Amino acid sequence: MSEDKRVLALFAHPDDAEFMCAGTLALLRERGWQVSMATITAGDCGSKEHSSEEISRIRQGEAASAAKLLGAPYQCFGSFDFFIQYDRVTLLKAIKLVRQVMPTIVFAPSPSDYLIDHEITSLIAQTACFTCGLENIHTDGVSAFKKIPHLYYADPIEGKDKFGNTVKPTILVDITSSMDTKEKMLCCHQSQRVWLQSHHGMDEYTEFMKRLARDRGQRINCIFAEGFRQHLGHGYPQDNILKVELVNLVH
Is the pTM for the entire model greater than 0.90? Predict the structure, then answer.
């Protein structure tokens, strides 16, 4: 496996990546990429039946099972739902993770989404990618990683920002061939179907995921797709590596 073929999915909660980018992760895995997955929280508020400690254990187990389908390690930072902080402690965990994984690609949540946890995680991922090579930021046992990764933001939930505006992805990936894997990964998170039904009024857990994927797919004349926007600020890579790696699947 090439040393450059490493991808990290850094999201707020277990099942976020499964909803928003697991199809693309599966495609990269098929092409020899090493996948790593991490969340800032264990989703400790995502239950009406279990205590925060119990649901945290359950959800971390579910996340690890989903990641295993891609041969991916999973780790959780241990922050609390709705209390993710853009602070030194959390940023150092993210920077250390990027240095450990040494990814060429990082996937993160949309900068504008319905949930503040997603937005703060997006900022944390942005900073971790930019600062992972700075020698004066010390992370125990891990040295600086000199290359700024390609950073891609996944679509927000329902494809709209927190003001209800439609978010138009600039990159669409045809995930029709990997939808089965994406669905299997999402189904690992069984505790969340009950939670979303009771709190969000959202049943048909996988169908909710497929509706957005179908919408994105219609834009490029395929069955299912995932949408992304690439971070193209100063200092970040300007080439679209997804287009190179997933030739004929990226539009």
Answer: yes
